Amino acid sequence: MPKTLENINKISFLFFAILGTTHILSMLMLANNCLPQAANLLFRTLDLPFLLSTLIYGGSALQLSLRKIGLHGKILSLILITLLSAIFALTLYLNFFFPDL
Hints:
By secondary structure, the protein is an all-alpha fold. It has one domain (2-97). It is 85% helix and 0% strand. The protein has helices at residues 2-31, 36-45, 47-68, 74-97. The longest helix is centred in the N-terminal third of the chain and has 30 residues, at 2-31.
């Protein structure tokens, strides 16, 4: 299981870095009014995938850190997964039901 978690961490970091860089570049393009339609499309499209990759990367990194110090267990993993899922569900709700915020 730790090897699988390490692989998830590595892959999610790759997605985190690529999506984060693209998301930040689209914000900069919007701020400088450079290709505003394309930048707005990228900015509004990449927010949820970037958040998902961030939560997976952060959760797997936290889980690996907890394993290193000896605090691993099914209850702790379940709490972490529930918390991260609630954050993502709340963001989905806010994004789709209040899109102009």
